[in-house]
User: What shape does this take?
Amino acid sequence: MVLLDALVCLRERLGIRVHVAHVHHGLRGRAADGDAAFVTAEAACRGLGVCIARLHPRERPPGESVQAWARAARYHHLDAMAERMGASYIAVAHTQDDQAETVLLNLLRGTGPGGLAGIPPTRRRILRPLLQVSRAEVEAYASSRQVEFRTDASNASDTYRRNRVRHHLLPLLVKEYNPRIVESLADLARLMREDEAALAVQADRLLAESGRRVDRTVILDVATLAAVPPSVVRRAFRGAFQQASQAPPGLTRRHLDALCGLLSSGGAVRLPGGFVARRAGKEIRIGRPDPEPPTPGAVPPARVPVRPGIWTRWPPLACRLRVRRLASGRVPPGHPTRWQAVLSPQVLLAPLSLRARRPGDRFRPLGMQGRKTLQDFFVDAKVPREEREHVPLLMAGDRIAWVIGYRIAQDFRWRGRGPACLVEVEFDADQRQLKTDN
Assistant: This one.
């Protein structure tokens, strides 16, 4: 009501027209009905038009908190009312105290610079003219101007975390630590927004330089990203995901840390909305996973014999493999890579074959003391569930010699001298995701 009074007083100086919008959340029965009636009467007294939107709590999705649902629905309806009225802006009355509470709440649950930036003064058509005004100043204005208002009784309840911060934590901080803690937290938010804005400009520039979009897949150059500070890279990943998903950024800190991990190793990262980020050689691709081709080759064969020196195909991964013996001192420099393994020549003493995983498969990964189930290995290596059936295993008799593309077995390691066995994998020209070394 203070915001409304101030806008009405300033409308001629600002050259604006004011229309009142109110959202009835349907949560407080007659009290909420009284709020809507009060707003309607106040708008009429000031000669202003008014729109009332009514929410229906039964439409709240299962599992979503009441507050989160109410907030999202409130802004949705405010935006819809602004569209109907042809309004350029929506003014809401968050204060400096609201800002301080938000920063504290974000800090308590764990946050980064974006959370410490708090509530933005503007967001698209949303304006917050009172964000630098304290709640005490708002109350003083209401008293001096005799502005009538209603009090939401739920604000007195300690059921909600924000209310507990407002009623207990902030007063404690004011009393015991810093009498100006509200201003300090608001200043912190302002400084963090400035830093965020500067980093966002750098991230946009990085995304323009390192990325390109093909259909709904965003492709990023690894070398360009790796040369930039992580703070900028994380924001570039957030922007790339937004471009790919056409949705507001929904990446958590865990998502962003995993994405940064792709700069130094291969693998894939599952992202919200069914999207996947995958390292493919010198690129990272963010998009929806390709559907599995409905061809007979998509079903892993039971076992494919491998003859040394002869290329052997593995249709599920659209690749072929060759095993050949190398004389002492003939191992090429720069080996092994992800798709080339150097093994002990003892691997040739048993019949070689390719097959997919089977329940109960176990092996001793290179560098480990004990044996491990292949299922546990795939989980630890973050191999996407939908890809595990397509990963070929190079078998020496009944023993796993190489989980191709991931890890050789300790039992078949080459000790760095003497004869060796080189295993090479090549991909078909149209295999896009895994055809180059990670």
Notes: Residues 291-297, 430-438 have pLDDT under 50 and may be disordered. The radius of gyration is 31 Å. DSSP finds twelve helices and 21 strands in the chain.
